[in-house]
Amino acid sequence: MAQAAWALGADGWANNGRLRARFFGSLVAGRDFLPALAYVDAAARAGRPLEQGWECYRAWIRWVWQGQGARGVEQLRKRHEEGGMPGPEESDTSVRSVGGRTLGYWTNHQDQSKYDAYRKAGLPRTSSRRESGVKQRNSRVKGSQKFWGQHGAEAIVPLRADHRSDDQPLEEFFRQRQANATGQRRYRRAG
């Protein structure tokens, strides 16, 4: 799979949008809501007293959640224009740096942040369920004290799929394996 992704040019985030449009153009591309929370929180609270930052955050995140993210972007743009661009020596945590990053994030991803429409359509708003599944699969395949070569790793995926299937093909696999067992392990020659 890694070779196929590399051949398609999927070697980094810059290509994701192009590949999605080419191969999965009919699918809805949604942005995970959790990074949105973090960006909005950082920009709303940067350089403000706690209570004022909290009120700003509540207003902006409500707009994002209700599909009115453009209102928050406009507020952020005004604030960013007032403060100006960060200088070359400026900290990554300065008000101008945080505001600039957040403005860039929302400008680039506003079309993928239609959380109100996603909710109405019953679509997920976070990737946490998918990430949890990947974590579970990784712990089962790549867990502690499990060492797989390429052949073993590629073999475990269909075995797991067989194990999860309704017709239980693993029973037949192990029956045949026992019948064909010779007591000797076959090793591949290096070369």
Architecture overview:
- It is a single chain.
- The chain has 191 residues and is mainly alpha-helical.
- Among the domains are: 33-121, no CATH class; 148-178, no CATH class.
- Helix content is 63%, strand content 0%.
- The protein has ten helices and no strands.
- The protein has helices at 2-7, 16-23, 33-45, 50-65, 69-83, 95-109, 115-121, 128-142, 150-164, 169-179.
- The longest helix has 16 residues, at 50-65.
- The radius of gyration is 25 Å and the shape is elongated.
- The mean pLDDT is 78.
Q: Any key phrases for this structure?
A:
191 residues, mainly alpha, 63% helix, elongated
Strands, total number: 0
Low-confidence stretches are: none
Mean pLDDT, nearest integer?
A: 78
Largest sheet: none
Instruction: Output the helix-strand order.
Output: HHHHHHHHHH
How many distinct helices? 10
For the record, give the distance between the C-alpha atoms at the N and C termini, rounded to a whole number: 23 Å
CA radius of gyration is 25 Å
Shape: elongated
Helix content: 55-70%
Helix/strand class? mainly alpha
Strand portion, in percent? under 5%
Which helices and strands, and how do they pair?
Layout: H1 2-7, H2 16-23, H3 33-45, H4 50-65, H5 69-83, H6 95-109, H7 115-121, H8 128-142, H9 150-164, H10 169-179
Give a brief description.
This protein has 191 residues and is mainly alpha-helical.
